[in-house]
C-alpha cells in the first residue's frame, strides 16, 4: 500500500512538473527544437535541471543497496553505445520532434481528450509492442 501511494505521489509530482515546465505543450517543445525558426530556449533550463537532479539522485542511489521503501535497488548496468541504442534514440527524437510529445507528456495529455493525443499514444503503444515482438524474435 505504501509503495502504491509513493508511486502515485511521484506520478503527480512528475505530471505537475511537466505542466509547470511547458513540456506538456507540443508547440513549446517543437519551438525548442526549431533552431532556425521560432527557437524557444526555455526548455534547456528544464533539461538542465532534470540532468542535475538525476545526476545527484543516481550518484546517491549507486551507494545504496535498498530504496527508501526497503526494496532492492535495480539500477541500469548497460553502458555500451550500440546500434540498438542509437536507432532507438533516433526514433525517439524523430517522434518527439514531429509530434511534440514524448511518452510522459503524451500520457498526461490523454486527459485533454484530444483525438491527436489519443492517436499518438495508440501509435506509441503499437510501436512498443512491435519492438517487443521484434526483440523476442531475435
UniProtKB/TrEMBL annotation:
The chain crosses the membrane at residues 42-61, 89-111, 117-135. It comes from the Bacteria. InterPro entries: DUF6691. Keywords: Membrane, Transmembrane, Transmembrane helix. This is YeeE/YedE family protein. It comes from Comamonas terrigena.
